[in-house]
Amino acid sequence: MGKFIVIAGPCVVENLEICLEVATRVKRICHKAGFHYIFKSSYKKANRTRLKSFSGLDEEEAFSILRQVKEKAKVPVLTDIHETTDVDKVKDFADFLQIPAFLCRQTELLLAAGSSGKWVNIKKGQFASPESMAFAVEKVRSTGNKKVMLTERGTTFGYYDLVVDFRSVPRMQKFGVPVIVDCTHSLQQPNQQSGISGGTPEMIETLCRAAVAVGADGLFIETHPNPQAALSDASSMLPLDKISYILRKCEKIRQAMG
User: Fold this and answer.
1) According to the model, what pLDDT value does residue 109 have?
2) Is 154 left (phi over 0), alpha (psi -120 to 50) or beta?
3) CA 64 – CA 37 distance, rounded (Å)
4) Cα–Cα distance between 78 and 21 in angstroms, integer?
5) In 24-160, at which residue ranges do the beta strands (DSSP E only) sit?
6) pLDDT at 51 > cutoff 90
7) What pLDDT score does 200 carry?
């Protein structure tokens, strides 16, 4: 893609107002910094821990919101897919299809995503080594689609924490794909007894700056105007009013690196 990539948005589609607010504000910040912005929001969350946790709006309502964000904010849109049948549901508005970390080895899903001709962002599973992601890339490329990205999102470190090994960035870049660092999901603290993941959002800036310093091709940041009121990932999202400061810092690091 050339430019440094910023994938950002609320964890899940909640309503049009929030999605448009995030898209327009982050687009403006990225344009000023010379970054390529991609709006991200999941139309559904298929892997919530608790049965009663919010997993998304009615599908057609969520699709309508994502279409409107794309048209009104004039930004490319990324959303998750969980089953092969999801590809046809979202391909008319989604520019990027994202394979969730838990599904990064699902062959049929990777092939369906690749066959769409869309960009495919594969999140590295918390259980996967950097080298093993070569096979996920190979599956998508086998369809003739060369538009593949990988996203580092931390590795399981005990039951309740994740850790980012930044050596993953250059190791996965060897596959000839852009490598993004997810600076919010990597700070989740999953498997809490409450059934709701915790997080350490105060470390988001640290991960962003470190990712830029090691040469990542982009950042993945879930952000929300009021994370405490968010319907998903409330404990690990970045408050929207803090993203400008962080991206300015990242821009300066990139400039210093030449």
Assistant:
1) 98
2) left
3) 21
4) 16
5) 36-40, 77-80, 96-99, 119-123, 148-152, 155-156
6) no
7) 77
161 within 8 A of 189, measured Cβ to Cβ: yes
Joined tokens for residue 35 = 């970054």
Beta strands in the chain (DSSP E): 5-9, 36-40, 77-80, 96-99, 119-123, 148-152, 155-156, 162-163, 179-182, 188-189, 198-199, 218-224, 238-239
- pLDDT at residue 85 above 90? yes
pLDDT > 90? residue 219: yes
* DSSP assigned state of 12: B
For the chain, the residue count is 258
- Global pTM reads 0.94
So what's the pLDDT on residue 96? 98
Place of tokens 């993941």: 197
The tokens of 226 are what?
A: 């009021």
* Residues 236/197, Cβ–Cβ less than 8 Å: yes
Q: How confident is the model at residue 53 (pLDDT cuts 50, 70, 90)?
A: confident
Q: Could you identify the residue written with the tokens 């869309």?
A: 118
Give the pair of three-digit tokens for residue 43: 């139309």
Three-state DSSP state, 95: coil
Q: How far apart are CA 100 and CA 123, in angstroms?
A: 6
CA angle 113, 118, 123 (to 5 degrees): 60
Whole-Å CA distances, 248 to 24, 168, 243: 17, 24, 9
3-class state of residue 193 by DSSP: coil
Q: Which two tokens stand for residue 104?
A: 């990064």
